[in-house]
Amino acid sequence: MIAPTGFLLPETILQTEWFSILATFVAINTVIYVVLGIIKIFPKVKLQRRGGANRRSETRSIHPDAPV
User: Fold this and answer.
1) Average pLDDT over residues 4-21
2) What number of other Cβ atoms are within 10 A of residue 42's Cβ?
3) From CA 32, how far away is CA 28, in angstroms rounded?
């Protein structure tokens, strides 16, 4: 018994312009997804903001006299 190994296209189809465009699209798409996957591995970079936009004016601790 012979197991199917894949689908082979004739050489005339592989040398057409539309197949070349399709192969280029698939290659670019693959590179984009590899880059997105690598970016997702690394931790997020948080930018430090200066100023009081991200700070509270009062402490919200259960110990109100504790240092901020």
Assistant:
1) 89
2) 7
3) 6
End-to-end CA distance of the chain: 76
pTM listed for this prediction = 0.54
Q: 26, 32 in Cβ contact below 8 A?
A: no
Query: Which amino acid, one-letter code, is at 45?
Result: V
Query: What's the gap between Cα 15 and its chain centre?
Result: 32
Rounded Cα distance, 7 and 58, in Å: 68
Dig out the tokens for 23 from the structure.
Answer: 């192969």
- Per-residue pLDDT of 14-58, as tens digits, reads 999 999 999 999 999 999 999 999 999 998 887 766 655 556 667
